[in-house]
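Could you help me review a protein record that somebody else here produced? Here is the record exactly as it was handed to me:
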Amino acid sequence: MGSQWGYDRTHLRAKHEGYRSRAAYKLLEIQHKFAIIRPDDNIVDLGAAPGSWLQVERTLTQAKVVGIDLNPIAALDGVETIEGDLNDPEIQKKVVTMLGVVNVVVCDASPKLSGHKSYDQARIIELNEQALAFACKVSKQGGNFVVKSFQGTDFPELYAMTKQHYYSVKTCITRSTRKGSTELYIVAKNFVG
């Protein structure tokens, strides 16, 4: 699947190296800077389709990796997937049953954008808040959380909300982010519980 921005060097590199999308490099960079995933961490990946973050996560931990998305995710060795809504309490229960302990929750999801900036910003922040609520429900104390967001008027409130639940909260703009994009990641470590 091509991106809305067309093909570029990073997209072509991802295809050449076997990743499902350029987003793989964003997680690799976040991991390099912040060490959010340890070799024995169970991981839940929200909005995981097409699965490039799942591909990276599988290489970073020997523990369990679960991807959740509204759309089907093509099979990956060593990864379990759930087709469903992250807000569904049954999905949340299923994740806890499958993993027992959830160490890391990540979310690189983005809603379909309309092109209306304020409307899109509100939808993105709503998705971010849902991912944060999911992480707070299933994570073990001391767990980590990463979510993609976009700079805008509602972002400071989301950032402050995240700080209420994690001891360390930082932002990160990755090198793989396209020039001109307002995309950034919240990297939250050590869930208060």
The chain has a mean pLDDT of 89. The first strand starts at residue 43 and ends at 46. The first helix runs from residue 9 to 16. The radius of gyration is 16 Å.
